[in-house]
Every structure is written in structure tokens, then in C-alpha cells.
Amino acid sequence: MNIARAKEILKSQFGYDSFRMNQEQAIDAVLQKKDCVVLMPTGGGKSLCYQIPALMLDGLTVVISPLIALMKDQVDALKNNGVEAAFLNSTQTGREQTEVFQAVRSGKLKLLYVAPERLLQSGDQFIDFLKSINVSLFAIDEAHCISSWGHDFRPEYIQLGRLKRYFPDVPLIALTATADKLVRNDIVERLAIRNAALFVSSFNRPNIFYKIEPKRNSYARLLEYLESRRAESGIVYCLSRNSADSLAADLRDEGFDALAYHAGLDKEMRDKHQELFLKDEVKIIVATIAFGMGIDKSNVRFVVHMDLPKNIESYYQETGRAGRDGLESEALLFFSWGDINKLKGFAEVEGNKSQTEIMLKKLNTMGAFGDLKTCRRKFLLNYFSEELTEDCGHCDNCNTTFEKFDGTIIAQKALSAVYRTGQRFGLSYLIDFLRGSQAKTIRDEHKNLKTYGVGADVSKNNWFDYFKDLIEQGYLKQTEGTYPTIVLTEKSMDVLRGTERVELFKVTIKEDKREKSLVSKLEHEYLKDLFDELRQVRTVFAREENVPPYVIFSDATLIEMATFLPQSEDEMRKISGVGDLKLQKYGADFLEAITDYCDRNNLTSRINLKTPKREIKTRTKRDQSGQTTYDVSLDMFKSGLSIPEIAESRGIAISTVETHLVRFIPSGEVALDDLVHVNKIEAIRNAIIRLNAGFAVAPVKESLGEAYSYGEIRAVLATM
Ligand code: ADP
Ligand code: ZN
């Protein structure tokens, strides 16, 4: 019942057709006044988990967020969907704040965003104020800031632990994109919400294509890369402020629309650059990691790392800023082992040996990721304790075959080059030497050696790969330090003597499978010139209202319009992202642009191509004939409808239908393998036994991860 209403709001206020990930479960829990912790990747849709309950509950939802810079945009976006929202922070004048207080008192406000320090400053004044009104929910955004284990600890968050004491009956929802178990436990502990329901979503970001290239001529490669993405927005990360500044300047010289962002710029400049980027007025931000925390720009199409991030967490978080709108996006990293050596210095935590070790270990894992020959996504998810059963088919390695060949001769050439030059030179020198380079850097005495020039038939790039491979296989070693040299190992002699055969990898790129992915198929079919026209319409509104364009409509929404060509208000309403208020405010202008375009090009509506929502006749009549709700689900199931279809047609949650059907397992009316794929049964059963979980489903679910649903676990439980 409640959930059906939540779904209506999802469509009417936000314009979306269905919930994502654990949104539905989290909303359900909040509506039942349960505390909960929601873990969802960036862009997953955490905000709706409290925004929808805020609209359904009497009273005010207080959102605590550390991102003052973002509050205004968040509130603008809500207002634009017809939601009464406001924020309180230090950037406002006294008068503006008074107005907000009045709005709260009048009871018409549904959501209030406040900074944590504001909430608990000047004694308990603000708390007392909240006590005098009706607070229905506390939402704590970026909840990992409360944990000193996290990567972004904020001492003022600690104070939030008092909330539960002051408001024991008001539910509290904590949200974060940090998956770490230590952090998760800390959140529960410090917020004093021991009985909180936990909702963990998969951290997979299927629309991001992961790609790593060797860091060689990376500037030239970057130019080429950006050239092919002229119309798109992206972030380029650098390690240092200096390199961010100079790279941004170089890119501008090359005619790209790029600005720098780092902590060394004064605040005014930083804010300006960020704002221009958010508003699509500037396409590329060249930044240090100072940029990004809370960047809510949905149409970032690519993230490039010029230098290696210091651990997988940072890499995941930074690349995660791409593609929040769900459209095809790319993460490109330029990788070199040299960077690992450089970062080792930064990993040192003074006077703390064990912490230093942890950092170094994380750095090495990052190195392993850079050098990986198998599915990148599998590795990433695995790092976050999530299992991907199949290769993703959507990363560089999944699109590459690594073929082995007999590389003994090549190995002998490489090793003897190292040996003859006295094990005192680095990779580049050795490769130049092998290729018989005429460069002055090559010492004259080396030019007389027999090995000089014996590798001229192999390209520079291939030599790099072969050396890397030889190092990896232990036939050579790279020393540490600022100027690493290549030296022989105990395995080298056998190769030089000719008693050991060496296998090397030959790299070939498979055909690009990306076209097959759903998102790109959709993108493929949209009318690009219409999309550009719609963007112009959007820009006009955005400038008029002084908000970022995505607050009007996201790129994803415009792409849908340019794909399905809605011709009327009713058709427009079917576009994802078009809610009632936006339809009213902007509908006519966008419709005009579309119909005009269609007239010019002799096109008609394609709205019926949009995933047809099958109309299913419900059997509510039988309800009245005394059948229980379980029987109704069973009947529909027997008549051949799938679980999602039953849920849709009855307006209840999928999980509810599953619960209904599980009841019929003991009697045999529903078979276990009707509900659970046979391949999964064994794993679920084992997990239940291993965890000795009794009838508790949650721990089993947590251990099995996203690929297994609560319903499937309950079904197996029912047979045990
Ligand atoms: P997070 O806070 O988890 O990073 P947001 O709450 O900002 O993510 O949501 C990211 C984007 O996804 C927003 O543009 C939001 O409107 C959109 N979104 C959220 N839920 C849904 C949904 N159920 N269907 C479609 N889009 C959604
Ligand atoms: Zn893959």
C-alpha cells in the first residue's frame, strides 16, 4: 500500500518509472519508522531513499549534509520537481535564514538541508527548535564522514551521535557510497542505531567502461582522446597542483575548453571553475583529487587519470564520477610502474609503521590492477567483496585477447642487452640500445657491442610490453628509487644459456563489443541533431533560472526524447525524468522543438518503442470472492506470469510476491526451482548452513551479495 503510493510519487514528482537497487526496500523501512543504513554507489540514487518518504510523512525531514556547496543545487533540483525544500548554512544572510525558519514553522516545508555544525552549534538551540516542530525523519548523507576509518573523516559528524538521544522516536537513515565494513560498523555504532536495517547495493557501475593504457606519450594520447570527445564533459585527474595548472593551460592552447581545480587556487576561483563546469559552460576540468567530493554533475562522460591513484578506493570513487545519469561513460588511466615508485614516498605515515604497511599494500594492489590481464570489473568488485560470476565484456581486457608465443629469442636479446651494458640502465635506454638508436644519449662504447641494434625489428611499444612481461615473470627485475634500473635475476642465466624457453604475451585487440550494450544501443539510435536542439532549449531555461542544466532535464532524459519523439503531453509523460511539474513548466517548449523537428524531417512518434509496459488484466474480482492475497499471487503465477509482472499488475513489491509464493513451497504447489535458478540453490544452502543463520535472511544475503535476492534465499530456507 505504502509502496504503491511511493511509486506514484516516483513517477509524478520525479518522472521515473521504477525503483533502482534497494530504493524500494529502504523507503519501505523508513516508512515503517525503522532506522537504516543505505550503501549505494555514487549515482545509485541515494537521495530518493529519503526524499520520497519526506513527501509521504507528516512533518519535516532534516537532511544533514557536509557539502555546503551542493545544498543550493540539491534544493533547486527539488523545487523544480515541485518539492518544498530549503537549506540553512553559513553562506546565507541573516534575513534569508529567518525566512527559512518561518517556512519551517509554517509547516509547508518538507525537506530542510543543514550542515552538521549548524545542527549542533550554540548549545542546543537548534535542537530545541527542532523539538518544537514535527520532525519526521533525519537523513544523514555521506555518513562515512563519521568514521575515522573512512577516507573523509569530519569531527563535527561525531556530534550526530546525540540525535538519537534527543529524538529516540524519529527514524534515522544514514547514506554513504563507502562499502568498507569497518566504516559501516562505525556508522551504526556512532549514530547509536544498533538495530538499523542495512541495505547494501552492488557497487557495479555497468555503464562505465574501464580502460588502462601504458603511460607513454600520455599527453599526446590525451589530446587524441579529447579530440574524439569534443562535445563531452570530463574530468582529468593529476597528482599535483602544478601539473593540473600546466596541463589545463596546455589544453587551452590546443583549443580545448579546460580549467584547473585544486586546493591551491583561492576559493573564489575554485567555486567559479566548479560552477562553470556544472553548468556545462566549460567542458573539461583538470584537477587534483581535491575536486569531486560531492560533484553532482550527472553527464560527466569520461574521467582520465594522468597519474596513478594511490589506492583502489580512490580510483573507484574518482572514476565513479562518470556516468551518474546511467549513460555510457569511460574511465581511462595511464599506468606506469614508475608511478608506483613515486607514490611509495607518499604512502609513508610518519611514526606509524603498521599504517604505512597498509598504505603500501593498497598501493601494490593498485599496481596489480594496472597490470591486470583479466576482467577489470571483476577485480574491482572482488576488492569490495562482491563477486561477479562472469567476465563483464565491458572493459579493455574483456575486449583483448592475450595470446602466448615462444618469446625465447626476444628474451635472450633483452637479457643480454641488460647484461652487456652492465645492469646500470633504465628501460628507455635499453630499448633505444636494442633498437640501435642514433641518439646522443647512447654511449659510444655501447654502440660497439654486439647486441646494439639487434632488436630494431621490434617496435618501441612492443619492447615496453615485452620488458614488462619479463619483469613480471621474474626474468628481470626493476630496482626501486627515483631512477630505477633493470637488473638480472637468478632466473636470467638459464635463458641466456639457452636452457630455458620463455613464453610472452602477444597483444591483440578484439572487436569492440561495446556496441552491444543496451545503453549504447539506445544512444546509437537517438537523433543527435535533435538532441543538440533540445540542449539549446534546456540552456535557455537553465540561464533564466540560474541553475545547472541537469536541474531542468538530465542528458538521459533528453536522449530519451530524441529517441522516442513524443508528440503530446501524454507521450511526454512517458519519458523517464518527466514528472508532473516539469511537464507543466517545460513540456510545451520541448514538445514544440520535437514536433518542429519531426515536421522538418518527416518523422512521427516512436513512443511505442519505449519498453512496452504490458497491460495485464488484474484478477481483483477473485480477491472479493474470499481468496487470500497469497492465493491471488499463486494463481497469477500458475497462469504463467513472471514475478515482476505479478508485482506490477498488483501494484505490490516484487519481494512481496516472492514472499507470497514461498509459502507454497512446502506444499509443493510451487517448486523451488521455479523461484531460484538451479545453479544458485547450492550456494544459498551452503551459506545458510555456514552462517548458522536460523531464519535470519539478512546475514545470508549480505554474505552472498547482489546476485542473490531475499526472495531466493527465503525460498531455499523454506525447503530446509
Ligand atoms: P547518489 O546520491 O546515490 O550519488 P543521486 O540520488 O544523486 O545519487 O541520484 C543520481 C541520479 O539518478 C539522479 O539524477 C537521480 O535523479 C537519478 N535517479 C535516482 N533514482 C532513480 C530511478 N529510480 N530511476 C531513474 N533515475 C533515478
Ligand atoms: Zn571485463
Automatic annotation (TrEMBL):
GO terms for cellular component: bacterial nucleoid; cytoplasm; replisome. Residues 524-604 form the HRDC domain. Keywords: ATP-binding, DNA damage, DNA recombination, DNA repair, DNA-binding, Helicase, Hydrolase, Isomerase, Metal-binding, Nucleotide-binding, Zinc. It is an enzyme of class 5 (isomerase). GO terms for molecular function: 3'-5' DNA helicase activity; ATP binding; DNA binding; four-way junction helicase activity; hydrolase activity; metal ion binding. GO terms for biological process: DNA recombination; DNA repair; DNA replication; SOS response. The keyword Phosphoprotein does not apply. Its EC number is 5.6.2.4. It catalyses: Couples ATP hydrolysis with the unwinding of duplex DNA by translocating in the 3'-5' direction. InterPro entries: DEAD/DEAH_box_helicase_dom, DNA_helicase_ATP-dep_RecQ, DNA_helicase_ATP-dep_RecQ_bac, Helicase_ATP-bd, Helicase_C-like, Helicase_HTH, HRDC-like_sf, HRDC_dom. SUPFAM superfamilies: HRDC-like (SSF47819), P-loop containing nucleoside triphosphate hydrolases (SSF52540). Residues 27-197 form the Helicase ATP-binding domain. Its cofactor is Mg(2+); Zn(2+). Residues 218-367 form the Helicase C-terminal domain. NCBIfam families: recQ, recQ_fam. Belongs to the helicase family. RecQ subfamily. This is DNA helicase RecQ. The lineage of its organism: Bacteria, Pseudomonadati, Acidobacteriota, Blastocatellia, Blastocatellales.
